[in-house]
Amino acid sequence: MTKKKTIFVLAVSLFILSLHAYAIPQQINFQGRLTTSAGVPITTSKTVDFSLFAQQDGGSSIITVSKTIIPDSNGNFSVLLDLDPSYFDGIGERWIEVKVESQTLSPRQKITAVPYAYRAITAESLSGGIPMGPTGPTGPQGITGPEGITGPQGITGATGAVGMTGATGAVGMTGVSGEIGITGATGVIGVTGVTGPTGDTGAAGVTGPTGPNWTRWPNAAPMSMEGYGIINIGNVGIGTASPGATLEVAGQVKITGGSPGAGKVLTSNAVGLATWETPTGGGGTTHAIGDPYGGGIVFYVYDGGQHGLIAATADQNTGIQWYNGVFRSTGTTSHGVGAGAMNTAMIVATQMADNQSGNFAAKVCADYSVVGADGVTYGDWYLPSKYELNLLYQQKGVVGGFALYGLYWSSSEGSGSLAWYQYFFNGAQDYYGKAGGTLYVRAIRAF
């Protein structure tokens, strides 16, 4: 803190004070008024040095007397200065210089002829002098004379030295976020989604007339059918003389075409061409983007639709801060799919110690639960990571309920005071101060 220096101004009057009636004075009554350079009276006690000089400027002091003065409410004070008569030799001038604390006031005050009566004391003790008679009785107190005219204001003292630089002030609040930058280049096209479910089977056509059965006898010689078709001869039986379908095989069928392999299943394409394929996901239930499932809406799938991410159907908060009152590093820098769950757990565990009753973005998601259409209560929601939040932005039209110009928090940390967010108007991602209280929150969960 810069120390402010006070410049003192002094108006004075000098009076000789007698020890008793008709006695030669040995004290000087110094009266004055002490103010600041702005004219404000000084009313607190001060230590003042009174120095006697033989000249108006320069030179060495004859003697210095220190006194403590106590000014009244107007800054007026009076002090008695004990000065030996020998300091007044009756030849030269005498001046008094006043120093208040560390500030010397100017000009010096001249002592007029009256104080030179001090020399009379010395004269009475000279050899051959007339003996002094006994002291007479003290005369009556004279009438107090009128108060003297206030003396002119003294010259303003020199400007004091510049005080020390004050301590650096506290860091100001985080400024308003700048304008959203230009939208970046379009990202790489994502993986093609899972093929939708097969449509309903069309109505069966009219059954044609039954043709005659065709049977190849077991002991008949082998014959090649390459390049031939069997038309209008009825059902065909292999290993049976009475086939009950267009083709009936009595025995094990071996198909060597279409890349056979252990564990594969025979599947058909849209025109009936069969191939051997490896089953996906062990045959479990699959879901597609946009499906209502698990208490929300599916917005991302993998493993053929057996796994993915679900978003809540509405925002959990429309304006909340990321931190819990203390800027700290939580170590939640992960960005990928599934990272948001671990990030959320770490944020809540780290920041709850800052304020047990506080609320913040990650805790809002961790506290969220909802009963799904299947009657199950889902409570494993979390704040999405930076990457998961971008996946959600890409399907914002499918999920729905987002603010047009909303800034949404992610659980990915940028630093001890910053975290990632996404602007859902154009998809831009950037850092934002953790103390910002105007960002939205949308919880997600995995399946």
Notes on the structure:
The protein starts with 7 loop residues before the first strand and ends with a strand. Strands 3, 4, 6, 7 and 8 form a five-stranded antiparallel β-sheet that branches. Strands 14-15-16-24 form a four-stranded antiparallel β-sheet. It has a three-stranded antiparallel β-sheet with strand order 1-2-5, with no helix packed on it. The protein is built from five helices and 24 strands. A hairpin with a 5-residue loop joins strand 21 and strand 22. Helix 2 (339-351) crosses helix 3 (361-367). The protein has 447 residues and is mainly beta. Among the domains are: 8-124, Immunoglobulin-like, CATH 2.60.40.1930; 292-446.
- Total helices: the number is 5
- Please tell me how large the radius of gyration is: 54 Å
Q: What fraction strand?
A: 25-35%
- Unreliable stretches (pLDDT < 50, length at least 5) are 15-24, 115-131
- The helix/strand order is EEEEEEEEHEEEEEEEEEHHEEHHEEEEE
3D shape: rod-shaped
